[in-house]
Amino acid sequence: MRIELERRPGMSGFFAIVSPLVALALTVIFGGLMFALLGKDPVDALFSFFIEPLLEVWSLHELAIKAAPLILIAVGLSVAYRSNNWNIGAEGQFTIGAITGSFLPVVFYEWHSPLLLPLMMILGMVGGALYAAIPALLKARFNTNEILTSLMLVYIAQLFLDWLVRGLWRDPAGYNFPQSRSFVTEGVLPEMLSSGRAHWGFAFAIIAAVGVWFMMRYMLKGFQVVVLGQSERAGRFAGFSSRGMIWFSMLFSGALAGLAGISEVSGSIGHLQPSISPGYGFTAIIVAFLGRLNPLGIIASGLVLALTYLGGEGAQLSIGVSDKVTRVFQGLLLFFVLSCDTLIHYRIKVVLGKGRALIAGAGR
Amino acid sequence: MIIEAILLTVITASTPLVIAAMGELVTERSGVLNLGVEGMMIIGAVCAFAVAQLSGSPLIGVGAGILAGAVFSLLFAFLTLTLVANQVATGLALTILGLGVSGMLGESFVGVPGVKLQPIAIPLLADIPFLGPLLFRQDLIFYLSILLVVGVNWFLFRTRSGLKLRAIGDNHGSAHTLGIHVIRTRYLAVLFGGACAGLAGAQLSLVYTPQWVENMSAGRGWIALALVVFASWRPWRVLAGGYLFGAVTIGQLHAQAFGIGLPSQLLSALPYAATIVVLVIISQNRRTTLINTPASLGKPFVPDR
Q1: Residue A314: pLDDT over 60
Q2: Rounded-to-integer distance, Cα B39 and Cα B221, Å
Q3: Rounded to an integer, what distance in angstroms lies between the CA atom of residue B59 and that of residue B61?
Q4: Probe site for chain A from B109, B280, B304 (most A CB atoms < 10 A)
Q5: DSSP, res A144
Q6: Which has the closest alpha carbon to B275: B236, B235, B248, B240?
Q7: Is residue A15 assigned to a domain?
Q8: Is B100's CB within 8 Å of A282's CB?
Q9: pLDDT at A353 exceeding the cut of 70
Q10: Are A302 and A76 spatial neighbours (Cβ–Cβ below 8 Å)?
Q11: d(CA B47, CA B181)
Q12: pLDDT of A355 strictly over 70
């Protein structure tokens, strides 16, 4: 038995929409198998993982809280990935954005002003963008691989935050706990609705997604991103600067990751602490791919991945499985997304023996 | 003797980097970029620890680590070689999945005291003053790491199969036309990389710190990837680079222990910062990078039929 690929004449529009759904279904099936192996009732487990969080108003709010950073970061990453710039250090840009955004409420902790919140958000974006400027500079100027440098910077950012909250920025009245002063009310991102905790970060995420969708579809910049990403040579002939694109896509994705960082800290934590993210920056990579690097798709996929976080927490309480299951689910999902995407460009032919073959994705 | 003690710890810290980087070097020489080293390493670490714990034999644990890394890399191979999925994204998926699965598998082993792989003294050589205890009173994995460097170097540059592998990495189209099995060779190269990453992981959980801690690879897989670039895809330079990084890691640990007045976080960040600096220095020279990089690296291959 062997597998052969047959290139389609064009992209299959049918599978472009269906493949993420197939991937989701496969993940759920494999997840059920995994729960069965762990000795849990798969239907029960899947219910408490994927359905239960959707049944209560408060947990829908939690869903929005977790989806906000995922969507914000992933929308930025989609621009970077489409232009063939592999920023995988969003977790670091998130962290630095949280730090620079917290500068005002932590250092000038007595400043009460309606200006505080907008300034925090802007500083968070600037911080994230500047941190992403390091791999951008190294790639544009020295031709250094941005995958490795942006990733190394994640570790450095996390250590920097750790040092800050244990040292310079530690709350003097905080009984030696490693955390900063709590933000004043004017520095806290308010709730969107009176029914629960979900803050304006979610609105930022939706606005960013729609804005980027518009840019990619109707603006020259979006066209440049796609052309340079598919063929740098073609882009050069059109007079587009690939160095300029490195800068644009890295700074843009960094800024959105930074905004996600400060929104998360200001909206749902209220102070800085050594750990501010359950790996949003890495999970956002999955969100970006599951959304097929399309900003509107990313809104949907961000909600799905947020659900895996919530489901993991819930399942830990209700059926006693480890919250590590979340990461496994996320990894599985990305695998299935990537393998199902093959169907968009190829027909998959499983050759069984002489003259017998099964073709997946024929006719479409 | 303090210098000897420090050098011993440098060797222990460098070995996993060298092993994982050697595996990735072979994979990349065949034209495949597997960014999942971190994930394969951590899977190797947890499987090696668990099996050593359950069987009571660290040697069987080492075998399990190698096997686990190889099996895990098969996932990557199937996706990128058979289904021509994006190599960068698939490598990331491998890392994310590896960290998740290892966390789940290892949960019941957290805090369990581990079994350490015991050193093997080589007769006569072990008695040489200074060098003996450093080089000839080591554990099996250290010896394997040296054999690996020698063996890979010989394989790549002195054998016909090695030449074919490099040819595939430089131009898979021509290699295919010449009748070389591109996909099959790449499968084997990915498997080899996975086995090495698994072995490196086994070293972490059975030698370096004989216990299981979640995320214990702590970015070493990524540093190994950087090492391959640093070494411009040459085995001996991987060895040199690996030891350089090992020395930085150990140096900062000793500096922390002596309390030289710098924050510990700054020192802990040193190996990562060093990686960036080294990458910049190496990649600055565009021409040498272009000459050394396997020309088909990361490009998908679909044979025409």
Answers
A1: yes
A2: 8
A3: 5
A4: B280
A5: -
A6: B248
A7: no
A8: no
A9: no
A10: no
A11: 32
A12: no
In 10 A of CB A38, how many CB atoms?
A: 15
pLDDT in tens, A151-210: 999 999 999 999 999 888 988 887 888 888 888 888 888 888 877 788 888 999 999 999
Going by C-alpha positions, the residue among B116, B91, B83 that lies closest to residue B27 is: B91
Helix (H, G, I), strand (E, B) or coil at A55: coil
Q: Give the one of A86, A163, A331 whose C-beta lies nearest to B93's C-beta.
A: A331
d(CA B150, CA B235): 8
**pLDDT tens-digit profile of B88-146?**
889 988 998 999 899 888 888 888 887 888 888 788 787 788 777 778 888 889 999 99
Percentage of chain A with pLDDT > 90?
A: 41
Contact between residue A168 and residue A96 where contact means Cβ atoms under 8 Å apart? no
Least confident of A26-35, A272-281, A330-339, A346-355: A346-355
CA distance A196 to chain B (A): 31
Give the least confident one: B79-83, B118-122, B171-175: B118-122
pLDDT at A94: 97
Q: How many domains does chain A have?
A: 1
Question: How far is residue B200's CA from residue B207's CA, in Å, rounded to a whole number?
Answer: 10
Fold of B2-292: ABC transporter involved in vitamin B12 uptake, BtuC (1.10.3470)
Report how far residue A6's alpha carbon sits from residue A52's, in angstroms, rounded to the nearest whole number.
Answer: 42
Q: Which residue has the higher pLDDT, B287 or A274?
A: A274
Q: Is A97 within the bounds of a domain?
A: yes
Residue A291 domain-assigned? yes
Radius of gyration of chain A (CA): 22
Instruction: Report strand pairing: B120-121 vs A356-360.
Output: unpaired
Q: Which residues of B touch A86 (CB under 8 A)?
A: 88
Residues of B in contact with A160 (CB under 8 A): 265, 269
Range 202-241 of B in CB contact (< 8 A) with A: 219, 222, 225-226, 229
Is the per-residue pLDDT at B13 higher than 70? yes
How confident is residue B281, by pLDDT bands cut at 50, 70 and 90?
A: confident
Of B94, B96, B265, the CB nearest to A159: B265
- Taking the domains of chain B in order of start, what are their residue ranges? 2-292
* A229: containing domain: 76-307
- Cβ of B263 within 8 Å of Cβ of A327? The answer is no
| Integer Cα distance of A48 and A317 in angstroms | 10
Among the partner-chain residues B35, B101, B219, the one whose CB lies closest to the CB of A328 is B101
In chain B, what residues touch A328 (CB-CB under 8 Å)?
97, 100-101, 104
Taking the Cβ of residue A30 and every Cβ of chain B, the question of whether any pair is shorter than 8 Å is answered with: no
- Nearest by Cα to A79 from A251, A275, A200, A286: A251
Q: How many CB pairs under 8 A join A and B?
A: 137
Instruction: Give me the amino acid identity at B124.
Output: L
Beta strands (DSSP E) in chain B are 120-121, 137-138
Q: Which helix (H) or strand (E) holds B281?
A: helix B264-284
Does a structural domain hold residue A144? yes
Q: Which residue on chain A is closest to B76 by alpha carbon?
A: A335
A148 touches chain B (CB under 8 A): yes
Single out the residue of A216, A219, A217, A220 nearest to residue A235, CA to CA.
Answer: A220
Q: B263 φ, ψ to 5°?
A: -60, 140
H or E, element range at B44: helix B37-55
Residue carrying the six token digits 């974006």: A125
What residues does A204 pair with on adjacent strands?
A: none
The CA distance from B25 to B232, in Å, is 9
CA distance B122 to chain A (A): 39
